[in-house]
């Protein structure tokens, strides 16, 4: 903290102390009730600040897979506050949230999402290995019968199930290669068939 910031902080603390002192001096007859009001307003103020500060995370949680279908075989994805593109796809009839990952060769499902898509983790053969930012993990190859995003449906797509601690399923290049173009411009990713 530099000198100006410290001076501002001291000024605000003194000003706040003076205002609170005046408030209590003027209302000492109803001190208990006024203290309750002050606590309630303080909590409301802190809540508003928390919502404002966490708005990007809350928005991503509420709507993790926002996309627009243009109707001509085009899907537009919006970039989220964290810099990633997310999409919700139907995999074998189950809705699964993906992060688009151009660095992933294959579609990679978390074990949780694999179960939702109809795969039994006890019968999967974890025979592959993949190098990740968190080290090497074992993978099991699977075959997705159907996968659709915004009405564009594909059948028979290879994917991997990650045995490690993968937070979210990845939409890799083996799916993106099915589009004739993938364009990133002005905070939008445009997939065109």
How would you characterize this protein structure?
- The chain is built from five helices and eleven strands.
- It is of the alpha+beta class and 193 residues long.
- Strands 3, 4, 5, 6, 7, 8 and 9 form a seven-stranded mixed β-sheet that branches.
- The chain folds into two domains: 3-53, no CATH class; 64-192, Acid Proteases (Cathepsin D, subunit A, domain 1), CATH 2.40.70.
Could you provide a short overview of the structure?
With 193 residues, the protein is of the alpha+beta class.
Number of domains: 2
**Major sheet attributes:** 7 strands, mixed
Q: Secondary-structure element order, as H and E?
A: HHHEEEEEHEEEEHEE
Output the CATH class name of the largest domain. Answer: Mainly Beta
Number of strands: 11
- The N- to C-terminal Cα distance equals 53 Å
User: Mean pLDDT, as a whole number?
Assistant: 83
Model regions low in confidence, pLDDT < 50 over at least 5 residues: none
The CATH topology of the largest domain comes to Cathepsin D, subunit A, domain 1
Which architecture name of the largest domain does CATH use? Beta Barrel
Index terms:
5 helices; 2 domains; 193 residues; alpha+beta; Cathepsin D, subunit A, domain 1; 7-stranded mixed β-sheet; 34% helix; single chain; elongated
SSE diagram, text form:
Elements: H1 3-26, H2 31-53, H3 55-62, E1 67-69, E2 74-78, E3 86-91, E4 94-100, E5 107-109, H4 111-116, E6 128-132, E7 135-149, E8 152-162, E9 169-171, H5 173-176, E10 181-185, E11 188-192
Parallel strand pairs: 4-9, 5-8
Antiparallel strand pairs: 1-2, 2-11, 3-4, 3-7, 6-7, 7-8, 10-11
């Amino acid at each position: 903290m530099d000198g100006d910031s410290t001076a501002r902080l001291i000024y605000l603390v003194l000003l706040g102390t003076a205002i609170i002192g005046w408030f209590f001096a003027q209302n000492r007859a109803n001190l208990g009730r006024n203290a309750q009001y002050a606590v309630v307003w303080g909590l409301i103020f802190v809540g508003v600040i928390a919502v404002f500060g966490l708005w990007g995370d809350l928005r991503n949680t509420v709507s993790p897979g926002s996309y627009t279908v243009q109707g001509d075989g085009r899907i537009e994805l919006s970039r989220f506050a964290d810099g990633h593109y997310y999409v919700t796809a139907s995999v074998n009839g189950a809705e699964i949230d993906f992060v688009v990952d151009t660095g992933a060769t294959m579609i990679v499902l978390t074990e949780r999402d694999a179960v939702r898509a109809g795969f039994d983790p006890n019968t999967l053969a974890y025979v592959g290995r993949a190098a990740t930012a968190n080290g090497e993990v074992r993978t099991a190859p699977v075959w997705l019968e159907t996968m659709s995003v915004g009405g564009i449906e594909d059948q028979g797509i290879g994917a991997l199930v990650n045995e490690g601690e993968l937070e979210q399923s990845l939409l890799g290049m083996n799916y993106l290669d099915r589009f004739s173009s993938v364009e990133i411009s002005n905070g939008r990713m445009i997939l065109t068939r």
